[in-house]
Amino acid sequence: MLNKKPALLNRSLRLTEAELIKYSTQSIQLKKPQRLTSITNSVINQDILSAVKYLPEKFVDLLFIDPPYNITKKFNLVAFKAMNNDDYETWLDSWLSKLIFLLKANSSIYICGDWKSSSAIFKVGSKYFKVRNRITWEREKGRGAKANWKNCSEDIWFFTNSDTYTFNVEKVKLRRKVLAPYRDKKRNPKDWDQNSSGNFRDTFPSNVWNDISVPFWSMAENTEHPTQKPEKLLAKLILASTNEGDLVFDPFLGSGTTAVVAKKLGRRYVGVELDNYYCSLALKRLELVEKDKKIQGYEDDVFWERNTLIEQVKSQKSTGKAESRQRRKVKKS
Known about the structure:
The chain has 333 residues and is an alpha/beta fold. It has a single domain, classed as Rossmann fold. It has helices at residues 17-24, 36-39, 48-51, 85-96, 118-128, 231-241, 257-264, 276-288, 309-332, and strands at residues 42-45, 60-65, 73-75, 78-80, 103-113, 130-138, 153-160, 174-177, 193-195, 198-203, 208-209, 247-250, 268-273, 298-299, 302-304. The strands form three sheets. The protein has an eight-stranded mixed sheet. A five-stranded mixed sheet has the order 9-10-8-15-14. Strand 14 (298-299) and strand 15 form a beta hairpin. Helix 1 crosses helix 8 (276-288) and helix 4 (85-96) packs parallel to helix 5 (118-128). The radius of gyration is 21 Å and the shape is globular. The mean pLDDT is 90.
């Protein structure tokens, strides 16, 4: 992964040999029981079944899991092989059952899967948690299929540990363009806003998401990880199911998206990842958060539809001008 020379406009994040050495020293491995203070905001370079026995009880507010799907896939030096459905369920259960003691009573759990693994996730997850919903999101990238329907969606099962849990619906509204706007009797906008960036309505979130862009080579968040989740996707889950200061735990951290978004949004994090290269990528991304906390597609405390970058920029400029006018008023007074 270190030998490929990127194209001129390729913004994908990579590691040099020197960076790999540097960040490899910053991840940790657990060999004895840990207090929460010693692992908070850390990346653990270890197999989850090895690490979990040293983790403290009841410290997780949000458990996000993006495990290998039931397909043959190589993750740098680690390979996962497809298996029959029963064996995949057994594999899921082998580690999910061991994570339960980490959860607070009011915690939420999200588990990702594709169409082949989704039913297994439901069956195993429902053994231990309360099923709340299944989110389906459009992954617009992907190869076509001549003898089947193109596979361009994934599922995220939403579970909770009890009937008491956090869900901040006002934090995850979607800003949509209004194409046929309604007006009241005085011709004022009805349930939508009109400004210099266009006509928009902030709508309640549903369990079908078609506003997500999968990371690709021209995006700064993109890495070489083959199944990297978008920052925008994690932002929705974290904002909905945690409050500032809560702790997010990811036992299959990959290139670090969960931890990166948690840090950008003022949450604490703990991530476990087996592959050293991906741990180092995650640590580099976490360091870059100090310079840039922006999440693509999340602006003005709302999520925007795809292909609305121009409108987002206009809205940002409009907000900036309004804040500048307010500051001038305060100075005059």
